[in-house]
Amino acid sequence: MEIIGYGEDGLTLWAIQWKLGHILNQLKDQSDLQECQVFYRPSFGRHGGPGSSQFGEFDFLLLSSGHLYLGESKWNQSSEKITEGVITLRGEQANRNLVFRAYVEEWFDKGDWEGVPSRLRMLSPSIDKKIPSPKSLLAGNLKSILTMIKTHFGNKKPIIRDVLLYFFHSKEMQKRAIPNKVQVLKGNRIDFTVMALDYSGAVIEDTHYFIL
Fold first, then answer.
1. Of 7, 8, 165, 190, which sits most exposed with the smallest number of CB within 10 A?
2. pLDDT tens column, 132-148
3. Structural domains of the chain, count
4. Domain containing 171: what range?
């Protein structure tokens, strides 16, 4: 069976399936692929905002032997502005990473997430988020994924890094610049590692669709 994909979601899955070794090499991570786990598009609610417990969804989470990578994906058809090699993300996209980072750190430090709002208030600018009600779907989802992360790393807290995969087509490089840095619009500063991946080898000729 042949599976055909389109857009950032499909490209993320393509990269996870076929380019994971390359991604780890570019991150200077020597982990064995067999030691890694990947969560594809884990969601923590789409209706976030100030005072909400929801904070969005990742394109991927990558767990290696010692690192937890929080993944964002963009491609050359994305609407984000690129100027002089810098791609601009919306504030909520960075907030998502900061909120989840607070959950992971609180989970490893104290085994719960009661202190997450306090951690977020200490940021500049602060992030107004509440923890989910105990019986909510979000609480169950968070507990499941945090438990799996804790199981993967044991008692050793992982090094958390923010990664942006930028997918480009080599034949269309002149139409749009490939970014190498990230800036955040009206939000906290966050240090993304930008990695460019050429997906042109997977493309069906004369289309924007590709083989997964």
1. 7
2. 999 999 999 999 999 99
3. 1
4. 4-211
